[in-house]
Amino acid sequence: MGKLWTFITQVHSLSGPGLTLLYPLYASVIAMESTSKLDDEQWLAYWILFSFLSLMEMLLQPILEWIPIWYDVKLLFVAWLVLPQFQGAAFLYERFVREQIKKYRGTVRDDHDHDHHHKPPIANKGKTKFVQFIIPKKVGDSFTI
Fold first, then answer.
1. For residue 74, which of 59, 87, 90, 56 has the smallest C-alpha distance?
2. In 1-145, alpha helices (H)
3. What number of other Cβ atoms are within 10 A of residue 11's Cβ?
4. How many CA atoms lie within 13 A of 51 on its CB side?
5. The overall pTM is greater than 0.85
6. What secondary structure letter does DSSP report for 22?
């Protein structure tokens, strides 16, 4: 029984990185090479949600240490996000994240508009402010920041 338990523990430990990183990385590369945009959206949504989950996990680590089943719950949640049968990442993005973006950004691209060169005016304004912040200004014979 000891060897079986050790084997189960090792599989359980390796399933996290495999499910959260290795399979999504592979699927993202395949999606980039395909002509469909739906799989691109699924994997971009996954990476957005996974990044948010990782950030929240880092911030809430002292609390999560007291929840013994946290790792298992996280694995089940990530499996729901990742597995193509569920496409949970795309669902959560469409249902919640896109609504928040609409609130703070004004409008989000139309579902049928895939023109990546057309930026909304708000995005251009933010980019202009960032560039103005980064590029030093010339005052007289010297530059200031």
1. 56
2. 2-17, 23-33, 38-59, 61-64, 70-82, 88-92, 98-105, 121-134
3. 10
4. 7
5. no
6. I
